[in-house]
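Hi Y.,

Following your request, here is the sequence exactly as I used it, all 174 residues.
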Amino acid sequence: MSEYGYTKIPGRYFIEVWLASVYKGQHGLERIVPLYTDAKKVYADVKIQMHKECAKGLEMNETVENSVKKICKNVLRYIQEYTEEFLFIEQSCNSPFATEEVLNEIEQHSKEIVGIFERGIKEGVLKQTSPILLISFCYYPIQQIFKEYRKPNSMLPDTDFNMVFQMCWDAIKR
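Below is the corresponding structure, written out as tokens. Let me know if you'd prefer a different format.
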């Protein structure tokens, strides 16, 4: 564990439970500022890793539909292979770690994915709206369905994720 409270395990970062103790006053104020700075870096690193994983295998010469479905598959693969990181991102995205500075840094690593959606809008294949809104219609259904799917008593135990990917595509295509 680092002095700021996270453990690095081959490419994986975890904020330790003691973070909560900082807010309960068990550590001095002098430890909060470096912890906060370090936690923002961890959040950015993990989110950037997710963007890179989700963009794997994309080729600019393939159809927008194929690219979008590949992104959907990569999102699911990331969530399955890096579940702890995914849950950390989900918890941190609305926390003080997600500052404008951090979000700008992360945005620099999402250009390839955003570019696919911008191309689809320009070609008239995708709905004429914000690429971020279109991406959301792919990302959020997959993550929500996966969270339900992995529960021991899931209401969706036999989920066909290829059907989910098709539903995401159907929601955003023109």
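The helical segments are 19-23, 29-54, 64-81, 83-92, 100-107, 111-122, 131-149, 161-172.

Thanks again,
Q.
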